Amino acid sequence: MQQKIIILDFGSQTTQLIGRRVRELDTFCEILPYNKFPHDDPSVIGVILSGSPFSVYDDAAFKVDLANIRGRLPILGICYGAQYMSHIYGGKVESAGSREYGRANLESFDKENPLFRGFVDNSQVWMSHGDTITAIPADCNCIASTHSVKYAAYACTTDPIWAVQFHPEVFHSVQGSLLLKNFVVDICGSRQDWSAESFVDTTVAELREQVGNDRVILGLSGGVDSSVCAVLLNRAIGKNLTCIFVDHGMLRKNEFRDVMHDYECLGLNVIGVDASEKFLGDLAGVTDPEEKRKIIGRDFVEVFNAEAKKITDAKWLAQGTIYPDRIESLNITGKVIKSHHNVGGLPKEMHLGLCEPLKWLFKDEVRRVGRQLGMPEHLITRHPFPGPGLAVRILGDITREKVRILQDADDIYIRGLRDYKVKLKGDEARRVLAAGVPADMSEDGEIEVSLYDQIWQAGTVLLSTVRSVGVMGDERTYEHPVALRAVTSTDAMTADWAHLPYDFMAKVSNEIINKVRGVNRVCYDISSKPPSTIEWE
Ligand code: XMP
Prior knowledge:
5-stranded parallel β-sheet, about 525 residues, binds xanthosine-5'-monophosphate
């Protein structure tokens, strides 16, 4: 039986990150809303309680009865999780006065406690909380303190309960992964047998079981998720898989041709549909971002369904949905910022079953599975690209000419990122390697990767509602600027702008202005998310 850790989500920004860290320990885990613990699932070996934006005293704070878990399974409370257990088991939580935020060091910790096995003195941790624990429950011991936080961690003496007020899941908690390993492996007893290889073997067998000799349809987007999904299904059922790749006319330069070629080399059975006339026609004159997205979503469904219906004996629709798309995150605000259109939706009258073989994987795991399946590296390390494509990177209305300008500028930028090599050391090198980028580490701990591989996502935005004056040769120009965007991120929920080298920016800016007709100015977007978003529309 596949062992699993359950992470109960109390709404923290970093809950997904806890999940990724547990998976990095080759251990399967599921993130569930705080009140959805699967009490009758015998495969659960431990429970982690996440942080939360709430104080335990807020009326709206998420509260859960742990009586059926306590004593039965090991529990690790993180931040709010730690405060909540202290609060309900007789300790005390009070406002910290000012928020305890940022780096801190464990000035003392219990070296005998299994949670801290292998910890060095003064290990750096990351704090982020407005309340603080001022007394722990009577049956608990304090097991770590920082300069300003007395109860940085505590453990129960009667039941397998541990709690930390810092965030072991974030990168700035230097030994955070070790703490999670101590909990997941040593305390909960994980066998660490969740790997790309075991995933491929079991999923291929499950897919054969699920779909048998039926025909399956899959929408391809050129992105990593749908491509890996296709190759996995191809391995399981071969020619019974038919893939549909729709060109809406707003892909990157030559993308439709190149990706079709890649798919054919992978032996996939793909139908390429050039629907650019329809999409660009329906978008003509439309300037509102949400309106554009709606039209693209609607057209996509129409085109995809028309093609799918031609495959009359299909019984299943496969989708490259991955875990972060599905996690029922606790949306505290309930507001929609942008409507995303990733999938065509089921053509209802075809009565297709849904097949989502990647639904348990995080992005880095999808990439590992792709490598395990022998897919080419350029397909696997591709940056995410939005479903509506360049439409959300052209401000104002969309025309073929604007798409051409943006494709040309973007092509120069992206090729430049791939060609520019950087040497990384220490934490930076480890972060890039942990994300699955293949690179050899030299004896002095250095790796060489491209700028492209170092960042999460890059793209170019055409500010076609803006014009500015320039001079080229002896001629005055009055043309559009483009904005370059590059961000670092782990999940696209939050992102920071990438600090690209000046010599790289100078080279790319020159090349774009000299070669791309219609652009006379290049800007670099230095906004992080939040408060901005990654895409401009
Ligand atoms: P934002 O702009 O919301 O983007 O910060 C977060 C991530 O989602 C991608 N994105 C989309 N992906 N359909 C998609 O498949 C969409 O409509 C869409 N809009 C944004 C974006 O590129 C980034 O990776």
